[in-house]
């Protein structure tokens, strides 16, 4: 809808002298004519409302982070049940065996070291979770990125891993070797 403007009218001359082509009240009326939708004043979102929402959301995220940090440090559920790993005498010197612990989704490696005897570690490399294998030179090797761990301590010797392998505590009952718990380090 185009409205003709009389260049000689008083209203046009007044708008030109003030530098306003369309005064605010008139613009609002024209807008309402072109977009005749009901507009409840309570539904207007102001800058103050937006700022309140953003600050409230930030506060909620901050509180949730604190709560999660506290909950993460609470004692875990019941301890994992001991899992039978091998029989005494099953592994000869420098032999190793992979076993499921604490469940079928995680594995450990049991090694019979020449001077130390039986040790067990998680067989998941602390770099990018590849499986490690034992070498007779007394190291655990991660083939993915050439990480090396000391088989007697689990400490990093070379490569990209920065943390030692988690130790798996062993217990011997009768002639059976049990994996008892993972000791993170």
UniProtKB/TrEMBL annotation:
Cofactor or coenzyme needed: [2Fe-2S] cluster
Domain Rieske: start-end pairs: 83-179
Top-rank taxon: Bacteria
InterPro entries from the UniProt entry: Rieske_2Fe-2S, Rieske_2Fe-2S_sf, Rieske_Fe-S_prot, Rieske_Fe-S_prot_C
Any GO CC annotation of this UniProt entry: membrane
GO molecular function: 2 iron, 2 sulfur cluster binding; metal ion binding; monooxygenase activity; oxidoreductase activity, acting on paired donors, with incorporation or reduction of molecular oxygen
Membrane-spanning parts: 53-74
Region (Disordered): 1-33
Gene3D superfamilies: Rieske [2Fe-2S] iron-sulphur domain
Keywords: 2Fe-2S, Disulfide bond, Iron, Iron-sulfur, Membrane, Metal-binding, Transmembrane, Transmembrane helix
Protein name as catalogued: Ubiquinol-cytochrome c reductase iron-sulfur subunit
Organism annotation: Ktedonosporobacter rubrisoli
């Amino acid at each position: 809808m185009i409205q003709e403007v009389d260049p000689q009218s008083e209203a046009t001359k007044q708008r030109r002298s003030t530098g306003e082509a369309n005064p605010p009240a008139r613009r609002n009326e024209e807008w309402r004519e072109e977009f005749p939708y009901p507009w409840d004043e309570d539904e207007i979102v102001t800058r103050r409302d937006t700022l309140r929402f953003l600050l409230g959301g930030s506060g909620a995220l901050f509180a949730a982070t604190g709560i999660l940090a506290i909950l993460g440090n609470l004692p875990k559920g019941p301890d994992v049940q001991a899992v039978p790993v091998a029989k005494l005498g099953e592994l000869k010197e420098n032999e190793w065996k992979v076993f499921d612990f604490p469940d079928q989704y995680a594995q450990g490696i049991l090694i019979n070291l020449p001077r130390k005897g039986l040790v067990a570690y998680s067989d998941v490399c602390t770099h990018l979770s590849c499986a490690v294998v034992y070498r007779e030179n007394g190291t655990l090797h991660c083939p993915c990125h050439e990480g090396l761990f000391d088989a007697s301590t689990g400490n990093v010797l070379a490569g990209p891993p920065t943390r030692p392998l988690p130790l798996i505590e062993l217990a011997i009952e009768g002639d059976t070797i049990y994996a008892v718990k993972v000791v993170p380090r």
